[in-house]
Amino acid sequence: MHIGIAGVGLVGRVLALNLLRQGHTLTLFDEDTAYGDNAAGMTAAGMLAVFAELESAESDIFEHGKRSIALWPGLLEQLDILDAYQQEGSIITAHPQDYKELEHFIETLKSKVEEATEIELLDKVGITELEPDLEQHSKAFFIPHEGQVDAQRFMKVSSDYLLSHPNVIWHQEIKVDEVKEGQICFAGVCEPFDWVFDARGLGASAQVEDLRGIRGEVFWLDAPEVNISRPTRMLHPRYKIYIVPRPNHRYIIGATEIESEDKSPMSVRSSLELLSAVYSMHSGFAEARIVKMVTNCRPTLKDNLPAITQGEKLTRINGLYRHGYLLAPAIVEEALNKGILK
Ligand SMILES: Cc1cc2nc3c(=O)[nH]c(=O)nc-3n(C[C@H](O)[C@H](O)[C@H](O)COP(=O)(O)OP(=O)(O)OC[C@H]3O[C@@H](n4cnc5c(N)ncnc54)[C@H](O)[C@@H]3O)c2cc1C
């Protein structure tokens, strides 16, 4: 089939990789360049927090998350970057005055899915064994099976792969005005395809009802004095921050969650909250260097859940909210099984 994909962010790329494996020919459209920063998929920390996200999500997310964790290695192997995947568990901790919240958080997870009983309580000794740099903490939980994808590496290498693939045409910096049954419309023309996918994320809001953006801000820090190897969260009554380690002592610190479609630079309030929280987690962050601050918006539907909608020769996938990396492979698999593969 000759398939058109509007939007080559996270979902568009996961779709493209799957469809190429099945032997289809693709034409991709994105209003950004192939290496641009527009996609939320480029801003994401790439955490695969299948348990930790359950606190504010449905158990559907858990099942899709487990399936995605099983599918990610195959996608990354296709790009020859299996080392961009890590699944060594994650840590959640809190300051002593917030231990009650921490316990409540874990109890909520346990009440939602049976597998959450695998979450392990760690004392100071346990924490130090697992992550020596977090020795100042005396209580934490270890969540096995969680992990991360190096999101920016995935985005970059998938650009290289798709741009050089003989069965792919990529129209860069083309704003798609409409995606309709079997057609993608831009600059006053509608190009016909055997099947089309609308994967424009927030850019599809004119055609997807109740789609909104949720602003998220992250810091990138170089912290030679910090040695944390797993995604680590700190619960706090007002915000939840996470530290996601990348090679060479680089850390992504995130993320705010603000009901707004404003993509302007980070606010003073957010920067104070994120940086003071991260410094309180590990004093080695005091001398870290701020590499960059990034803001983007998560495409979110009314119920904060992803949706696949299908018409004749048309599939729309949207609403991946804060769970794009956690869910995209499974959601795309489901969409393909529902649609053109039948
Ligand atoms: C700060 C932050 C941190 C995050 N951290 C995580 C995390 O740790 N784990 C996790 O699972 N998820 C995380 N996410 C969520 C994840 O990034 C999103 O759920 C995911 O990127 C959504 O994928 P998408 O393909 O629908 O949208 P996007 O990735 O935004 O892609 C949409 C693409 O469509 C293009 N486009 C839009 N409009 C048009 C148009 N009219 N014409 C042509 N092209 C168009 C855009 O340029 C873009 O390339 C995070 C998000 C943010 C903002």
Short description:
This protein is of the alpha+beta class.
CATH class of the domain at 1-86 and 148-211 and 301-342: Alpha Beta
Give the helix proportion (percent range). Answer: 25-40%
Overall mean pLDDT score? 95
Q: H/E series, N to C?
A: EHEHEHEEHEHEEHEEEEEEEEEHEEEH
Strand order of the largest sheet: 6-7-5-15-16-17-14-18
Shape: globular
Rg measurement, Å: 20 Å
- The chain-level structural class is alpha+beta
Q: Strand count, sense and closure of the main sheet?
A: 8 strands, mixed
Give the full name of the CATH homologous superfamily of the domain at 1-86 and 148-211 and 301-342.
FAD/NAD(P)-binding domain
CATH topology of the domain at 1-86 and 148-211 and 301-342: FAD/NAD(P)-binding domain
Give me the count of strands.
20
The count of helical stretches stands at 8
Q: What would you say this structure looks like, in words?
A:
The structure is a single chain. Helix content is 29%, strand content 30%. The strands form 4 sheets. It has an 8-stranded mixed β-sheet with strand order 6-7-5-15-16-17-14-18, sandwiched between helices. A 6-stranded mixed β-sheet has the order 9-2-1-13-20-19. It has a domain at 1-86 and 148-211 and 301-342: FAD/NAD(P)-binding domain (3-Layer(bba) Sandwich), CATH 3.50.50. The chain is α+β, with helices and mostly antiparallel strands and 342 residues long. The chain has 8 helices and 20 strands. The site of flavin-adenine dinucleotide (FAD) has 41 residues, from α1, α2, β14, β18 and α8. Flavin-adenine dinucleotide is lined by residues 6-12, 29-32, 38-41, 43-47, 175-176, 199-201, 203, 216, 218, 254-255, 296, 298-299, 318, 320-326.
